[in-house]
């Protein structure tokens, strides 16, 4: 390439750099050093261009050359003007897209639904100094809540070191932080305090503030059921989730009781491995007969003596283990399903396209007539694929055999019955959800998003809390790259200033070179 060609490229580049340096200072970067560097570099490029083409410029008085130079300058200014306009428009109409796999920069449907249902305005007061490592992340979280519901949620940040009165009010020591969440106006408004919260903690705090009263959930024990208190192979994560959403989980042994306590909002049978006694079954039958709510989780190779009780509500537990040769996670007895019924419990999961995973589940046969009580309605909630079967000898065989039930199996079902005429009515309608696998509620499996939402939605449906049939904030593994303010400024300068100018400069140089031939 000849020197004259190089210097012709330097001219447009230099003019763009020189004219855009004020924009670097005022819009894209704010850095005096970068703006000055662009101006100096642009002036140097122009100087080289002028020195190399002084003879041409000396003849600039001719009509053709004058028109050419004038059109070149006007074109450069027009291109620069378009660039400025695009940057201003992008700044004012700042559209964001969350392309992360876990959607870590988007609010969960549960949060959006909760914000839309707020009856009183919610306010978050963050007693967090600007130097705190979580300040930026917390401010971004609050901003998303406010943008989703600007009339229902607002927030403020206060440096506790500068407001000793507030620090004393909330008993903050030096270096401590706190977030105060309130609903309503005035000092008497209900409020709660949190450490620096993630989305799930903030959403659950707002839900609990709006709850009229926590529903007591009794987990039956005494028959080998999974423990609420035992970590590891227990239900401590489920218990924590229940507390977050306003439930009050407690253990209950029916031995020696004639009825389920009257304050029971829900009863859960979580993987019983021994038979319930006749008086215990009678207590459960009386509870549902008065409009009770029950979640029943069974397991493979277990007997609990509740067969006739479940048959009253149109459910028969199949003998054996459900298996699927195609829709599994590598083992035919670990089923993966996105075959949903038309029930409200799984509608949010179906809309998102989530897959539920059940390790060694049992299936159910739904009874439409005969044993079931009058007025019972039973529906499938989650099914297997059409290729499944019930394996009666899972330790000996992993293929279907003659006489074994085959086809699409019901893995989760829901039943209801009108109980408004019951003598000692608890609720207007009895509700029962049966799940073919209790292992999905154990601590090691609780992090699986689809399973967690399936269980919590079943609780919400059984307890007539429609707002709790949703998708909760996932347990996100946030793999973000932390950048300093200087690094962010440099990144913004390169992406919104230097790179677009370079592309425009190259295009302008090519156009001028061809025009000058």
List the helices and strands and how they pair.
Elements (H helix, E strand, L loop, with lengths): L2 H26 L3 H21 L1 H5 L4 H30 L16 H8 L5 E6 L7 H14 L4 E6 L5 H6 L8 E6 L7 E4 L4 H12 L4 E6 L15 H9 L2 E6 L11 E7 L7 H12 L3 E5 L9 H5 L3 E3 L3 E3 L10 E4 L1 E2 L6 H6 L3 E4 L4 E3 L9 E8 L5 E3 L18 E9 L10 E7 L13 H14 L22 H31 L2
Parallel strand pairs: 1-2, 5-6, 5-7, 7-8, 8-18
Antiparallel strand pairs: 1-3, 3-4, 9-14, 10-16, 11-13, 12-15, 15-17, 17-18
Helix pairs in contact: 1-2, 1-4, 1-14, 4-14
Can you offer a commentary on this structure?
The protein is an alpha/beta fold. It has 4 domains: 3-92, no CATH class; 109-209, Glutaredoxin; 215-468, Rossmann fold (3-Layer(aba) Sandwich); 484-516. 38% of the residues lie in helices and 18% in strands. It contains 14 helices and 18 strands. Strands 6-5-7-8-18-17-15-12 form an 8-stranded mixed sheet, sandwiched between helices. It has a 4-stranded mixed sheet with strand order 2-1-3-4, covered by helices on one side. α9 (236-244) links the parallel β5 and β6. α1 runs parallel beside α4 (63-92). The longest helix is centred in the C-terminal third of the chain and has 31 residues, at 485-515. The radius of gyration is 33 Å and the shape is elongated. The model is unreliable at 476-480 (pLDDT under 50).
């Amino acid at each position: 390439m000849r020197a004259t060609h190089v210097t012709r490229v330097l001219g447009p580049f230099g003019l763009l750099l020189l004219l855009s340096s004020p924009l670097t200072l005022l819009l894209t970067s704010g850095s005096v050093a970068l703006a000055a560097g662009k101006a100096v570099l642009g002036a140097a490029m122009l100087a080289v261009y002028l020195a190399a083409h002084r003879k041409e410029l000396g003849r600039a008085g001719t009509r053709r050359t004058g028109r050419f130079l004038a059109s070149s300058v006007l074109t450069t200014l027009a291109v620069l003007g378009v660039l400025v306009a695009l940057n201003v428009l992008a700044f004012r109409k700042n559209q964001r897209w969350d392309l992360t796999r876990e959607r870590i920069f988007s609010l969960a449907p549960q949060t959006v639904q909760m914000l839309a249902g707020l009856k009183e305005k919610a306010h978050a007061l963050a007693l967090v100094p600007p130097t705190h490592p979580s300040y930026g992340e917390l401010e971004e979280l609050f901003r998303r809540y406010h943008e989703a519901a600007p009339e229902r949620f607002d927030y403020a940040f206060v440096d506790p070191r500068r407001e000793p009165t507030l620090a004393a009010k909330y008993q903050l020591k030096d270096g401590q932080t706190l977030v105060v969440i309130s609903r309503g106006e005035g000092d008497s408004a209900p409020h709660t305090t949190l450490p620096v919260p993630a989305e799930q903690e903030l959403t659950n705090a707002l839900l609990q503030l709006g709850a009229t009263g926590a529903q007591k959930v009794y987990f039956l024990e005494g028959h080998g059921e999974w423990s609420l208190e035992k970590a590891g192979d227990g239900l401590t994560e489920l218990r924590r989730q229940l507390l977050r959403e306003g439930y009050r989980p407690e253990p209950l042994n029916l031995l020696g009781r004639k009825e389920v306590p009257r304050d029971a909002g829900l009863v859960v049978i979580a993987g019983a491995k021994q038979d319930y006694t006749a008086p215990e079954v009678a207590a459960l039958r009386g509870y549902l007969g008065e409009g009770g709510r029950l979640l029943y989780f069974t397991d493979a190779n277990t007997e609990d003596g509740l067969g006739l009780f479940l048959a009253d509500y149109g459910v028969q537990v199949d003998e054996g283990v459900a298996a699927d040769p195609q829709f599994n996670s590598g083992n035919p007895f670990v089923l993966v399903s996105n075959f949903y019924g038309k029930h409200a419990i799984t509608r949010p999961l179906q809309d998102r396209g989530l897959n539920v995973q059940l390790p060694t589940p049992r299936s159910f046969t739904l009874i439409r007539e005969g044993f079931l009580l009058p007025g019972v309605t039973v529906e499938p909630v989650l099914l297997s694929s059409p290729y499944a079967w019930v394996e009666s000898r899972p330790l000996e065989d992993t293929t279907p055999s003659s006489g074994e039930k085959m086809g699409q199996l019901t893995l989760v079902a829901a039943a209801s019955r009108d109980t408004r005429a019951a003598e000692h009515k608890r609720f207007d309608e009895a509700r029962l959800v049966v799940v073919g696998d209790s292992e999905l509620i154990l601590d090691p499996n609780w992090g699986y998003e689809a399973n967690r939402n399936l269980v919590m939605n079943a609780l919400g449906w059984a307890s007539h809390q429609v707002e709790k049939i949703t998708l909760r904030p996932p347990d996100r593994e946030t793999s973000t790259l932390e950048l300093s303010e200087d690094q962010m400024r440099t990144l913004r300068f390169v992406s919104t200033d230097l790179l677009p100018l370079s592309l425009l400069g190259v295009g302008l140089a090519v156009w001028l070179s061809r025009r000058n031939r």
